[in-house]
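Structure request: Outer membrane protein assembly factor BamC, Kangiella geojedonensis.
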Amino acid sequence: MLNYHKTIKTITLAVSAAVVLSACATTDGTEDIDDRYMSSDKGPELQLPPGTTEVNITDSYRIPEGTVITSREAKGKQLALEPPQLLLVAGDGIWEDTERQQPTVWVRGNSEELVQYIERFMVSQKISYQEASADSVTTDWISDTDESQVSEHLGAYSLEGERHKFSLNIVDTKPNEVALQADHVAYQQNKEDRWVDVETSSRMAKQFLNYFIGYYDSERTREARERILQQAKINVELGYNDQGALALVSEREFLAVWDQMPRVLAALNLEVTDRDRSEKTYYFRVNEPDNGFWSWFGSDDNEAKIDLEPGDYQIKLSELNAGGVSLSFYGAEGELLDSSTVTRIYPEFSAEFKRSKGERGDN
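Returned structure:
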């Protein structure tokens, strides 16, 4: 009996497999495709209706009768294919003169001092230059094979074998200000072992001027820091900013006061939350005093040493027209603190500014 059932199961399995295999063998995936269109006849050609003519397709227009064709030169400015170049004038005491055709910036200082900075820039970048005059310095050829940061990045980004000449010229002066202009004097490219003149561009003049501005700003910053180290103490008094509001004022230059701010705020237990050099602003916070259990056994070392309500504040530094710097105090939303508040916190700020880095007070 067992052998009978086993035989029946074997036969059933074999029949099922055969049916499946036969189905696979007869299914090629084309039984649902209607390809009768491939054997259809070509239809009749389109006939133009009576009284019509075929349209002639052309990519030109017929010039009207009597038109006189004249050769005219192009008008307007030629389209420049080179990318724009901005002047980097974020440094202190430098601003762009946008009314002049050539790249020009105004620099705080005098002509003689500025020419000395230009010569030092040339030496630091290993750039050969002609003898400087009282108001101009002109380079010799600067090649892309020279060993300097300037030569490596000047000119077109996709070309090799080119050289340039530049001049930095003092074109105007004002009290304590000098207008410095860059000129792309000459430009050549090496084509088949021959130097070929190429049109100069304002963009490359801006590139060269940017390199000098960066050098000038870094040198001025370095020199100011050295002076700060020599004279760390800063005298701060009550006075007025140029808008007539009560503020702290100092005869020292902006950078001297700016660099001392983190130390002064930390010494007064005021938390610096941010600072913005472009806005000449420090942001600080007066933290809530610790009124917990342990405060009964001693003073809070982190408690603010000035009489200000807990919250966020701002100190804006401004260069005064008469010389020196003013420090104006604002609330979190930019509202000016009243005169009584400024008068109240003045003694602590003044005392801390007068201390050098190594001194500690007992406030």
